[in-house]
Write a structure and sequence with these properties.
single chain; four-stranded mixed beta sheet; AB_hydrolase_fold
Length: about 130
């Protein structure tokens, strides 16, 4: 719903990061309530959203902000079903926006797929070189 899966066509599987896995036909606007989303408590909005991002980058974020408009927000998620390939989710264990247990539950409920995890946050998971573990 926020982007395409990471696909490795040679391996014949699809993998999502920090899953925002929509159910077929579900509107993005409905996802938050439908999944029972709750982030970490006791954090400011900046801490909640930007956790794991260096402070100097967070400080510059407002200067680069823009109004986000998404035509897809109120449209059903396009696929009628998940791809007919093994599907997985890379869980960022340290994320405070999409908590690890929440990510695992959504992956199991929505896609019946396997998860593997990495010591990172969703915004930093692609920049870490540590090996994922299940």
């Amino acid at each position: 719903m926020t982007g395409p899966p990471i696909e490795d066509k040679s391996a014949g599987f699809a993998e999502f990061r920090a899953t925002v896995a929509g159910a077929p036909g579900e509107k993005s606007a409905d996802w938050w309530d439908d999944t029972g989303y709750q982030g970490a408590e006791g954090l400011s909005e900046l801490q909640h959203f930007y956790n794991g991002v260096p402070a100097e980058i967070v400080a510059q974020a407002a200067a680069h902000g823009r109004e986000q408009v998404s035509a897809e927000w109120n449209e059903p998620w396009p696929p009628d079903a998940w791809p007919d390939v093994p599907t997985g989710v890379l869980v960022a264990r340290d994320d405070q926006f999409f908590l690890a247990d929440f990510q695992r539950r959504v992956a199991a409920d929505r896609a019946s797929c396997r998860t593997r995890s990495r010591a990172a946050t969703r915004l930093r998971s692609a920049t870490r070189n540590n090996s994922p573990t299940g």
